[in-house]
């Protein structure tokens, strides 16, 4: 049974690094103030973690990527 399920599986690789660096290179085009500030309107929530606005953009980009392979 497991082998039948595996035959129907599909794996896609999403390049989150390129998406993140694009935002960091051109933050204003994505609605952020700049790529260094922390807080409201910025990419960063703290010194390490992006804000939820980044995650929303990421989710939308992943959905676009996935829709090329699956019918959503």
TrEMBL record:
One of its GO terms (molecular function) is hydrolase activity. The lineage of its organism: Eukaryota, Fungi, Dikarya, Ascomycota, Pezizomycotina. InterPro entries: SGNH_hydro_sf. It comes from Aspergillus sclerotialis. The keyword Hydrolase applies. It comes from the Eukaryota. This is Cellulose-binding GDSL lipase acylhydrolase. Keywords: Hydrolase. Gene3D superfamilies: SGNH hydrolase.
